[in-house]
Every structure is written in C-alpha cells, then in structure tokens.
Amino acid sequence: MPVLVFLEGWHVAGQGDFSEICPWLQGVAQRGKTGILSGAPERPRFPGEPLLMLLRGEGAWYRGEQDPPLAALAAQALGQEVLPQETWALVVWAHWLRKQDKLLFISPERTGQNEAEIARLGELVRSEWSREGWSVITASRGMVLAKHGEALRLRSFPVEWLEGESAADCLPAGPDAALLHRLLLAGQMLLARCEENRLRLDAGRLSLNTPWIYGVGALNACAPLREAFGDIRHVWSRSPWVAGAAGGGGVVWHGAPEVGSPWPEAALEAALRQGSAVIHLDMPATLLHHGLAEERGRLLTTLDREWLQPLGRLCQRLGRGVLVLGGYPVASGGREIAGEVPWAAIGAKGVASPRRFWHRGRFGGGSGHSGAELATLWSKLDGG
C-alpha cells in the first residue's frame, strides 16, 4: 500500500537546478526508477490532468469535447449523491478589474473570502439559477456546487489559471456554453447590488463582482478507478476532486496542511495502516500563477525538508513504497506549458536511503510508461 505524491509547480522552464531545490525527490529518482508518463497530452488542459489520467485512465473528457468532471468527483468526496448523467459544476467568486479596454481576473485567492461569505453568495444566486435548471448546493469547507439534471457538453476555464487573464479569453465554450453564460450574467447582476459587496467595499476590500464556474461535467465522462489504486483510503489535497478521483465517497478528504505547519505524521501513519494515501502538493504552482517564482523555489526546499523527507522516513518504517508524479512544467508567467510529465518510484527498502551521488539519474530522465504500466508498478512497490 504505497503513497502517491503529486507535485505541481516542480519545474519552471529555464530556471535553476531542480536537484538542488528538492534533493529528496531527486534522490528518489536516482535510487529508484524514473521516467515520463506516456500518453499525456502535449499541452495541459487543466491542472491535475496527469493525476486524473493515472488514477482513472483517459475517459470521454480526454477527447477534448468537454471538461473532465472535476465538480462531480468533488461532490462525491463531499458526500453528495451523484448520478452518472447529471452535470455538476464548481462555483467560486472572483473580481473583474477593468484595465483599459479589458476585464482582467483577480482570482479568489487574492480577494480574501471566508466560508460564511462564500455560503451567503451561494444562497444569493440559488433562486435565479434555479430558473435555468441548476440547483445550487452549499457544501462543507466553503465549497459551492451547482447541479443540472442533464449531461451537457462544454468546456470551462480552470480557476487555478484565472489570475490576470482577460475575461474575453476565458468564457465557457462548446455546444451548451450559453447555459453558463446566462448563469454568469445573472450572478453578476445579483452581485452588483448585494449587501455582501457593500460591506466589503465599506471595509476597503475588493468586491466580488462575478461568479466563476468550472470543472463542469457528468460522472459518466470519467473512466472507473484503476483496480491497482483501490486501496486508497485517505487524500491530502486542497482540491476535493482529487479525493473523488481516488475513490469517491469511500475516501477521506483531509484538505492540505498549511505551509509552515507541522507535517501531520500521526494522521498519515494512522492512514497508512488502513491503506494507501495520496498527497497532492500544488502550493508551488499557486505561487507561480501569482508571479512569485523565487518564493516558489524556497517553498519547494521547505516542503522537501519538512514534509517529504519525514514522509520517506515514515514509509521506510512502515514498509511502504512511494510513487511521485510531477505536473507539467510551468512558465515563469504562471501557466502550465507544453512538456513531459515526470514520475519517480521507489520501494520501501530504499525510500529513505542516502542519495547515491555516482548515480546520474534525474527526475523524469527515464523511458515512457503508460498510466496502466505505472499502476502495475505501484502495486509492486511495497515489495522492495
């Protein structure tokens, strides 16, 4: 029952020696096996795509006609009943900033929102959106979901990439996109005159003047979980869809530890005694999306020292292997770009061993393996 670590923002094109920034991960690549995930699209279409491909295979979303059903997967992790043909969407609140003749996004992370505000805004749009056939669900942990009874075909722009983007370049597309356009317009009109925004402006805070809807899709667009990953019981991630992708309602979603907080070793040890676990670290990518490249490098070094190295020692003590999957390389401007998706894997015996400096391997420096081949490798990691 190994541990799967998914690390986004691990590499900035043309910047730095990764082995110096994240030496534990480089050591795993040197002592174990490493390569690239074959079959991954040359250009990413949404954050987390390699992880969904590994856990679930390609599914209908892979052909590019629709979004991957991230919201439906998140709904499962949040304890909602999800029917295969229903369309689910994730809803957040953002700010459009007018700059000359453009409307540019300021992402939810920069506007400052608490769970109570998020829930009240969900209630604000509930009645109006219901006229378009959508049910608004205010879930736990500040999550707002919307549900439509029919399967829809459309593509939306992921919230993780919104910062600084022009609204004209991000609007939903596809045969059923007009439905989302109407939701956005109705939401903007309600937000323009709501009490919540009046209070924010009086306090000198940015208004939340537009909803954003993403991760739209039906569960039947997603392939079943690969059998090899059926023992995953716990997920640490900021994104609930990761827990849904790893097994739906049967997986405990912990959220992600705050940077600077102690590594939750006791909770992880208890989890690993029950089954496998997924640890999704996307904070480095978030810093890059906000133009903080130097801070991202320091964060990776901190994660390596305070989280990944203790994880290696724990896995060695419990006899667990580790599979690390990287995200796409990221441009200095913050968007994921074309490139290969690396992985590294090591069995329990070598997971916390010293680096072997005479080994020349580097993270992602080996041959290509498909998702099915990596799933087979994963199933054998605890043996060596």
Please explain how this structure is put together.
- The protein is α/β, with parallel strands linked by helices and 384 residues long.
- Helices cover 34% and strands 19% of the residues.
- It has helices at residues 18-21, 23-31, 49-56, 70-77, 108-111, 115-130, 177-192, 195-202, 240-245, 265-272, 283-289, 293-318, 371-379; strands at residues 3-7, 33-37, 87-99, 102-106, 134-138, 144-148, 210-218, 232-236, 252-253, 276-281, 322-326, 342-346, 368-369.
- It has an 8-stranded mixed sheet with strand order 9-8-10-1-11-12-2-13. Strands 3, 4, 5, 6 and 7 form a 5-stranded antiparallel sheet that branches.
- Helix 6 (115-130) packs across helix 7.
- The longest helix is centred in the C-terminal third of the chain and has 26 residues, at 293-318.
- The chain is globular, with a radius of gyration of 21 Å.
- It starts with a strand and ends in a 5-residue tail after the last helix.
- The mean pLDDT is 86.
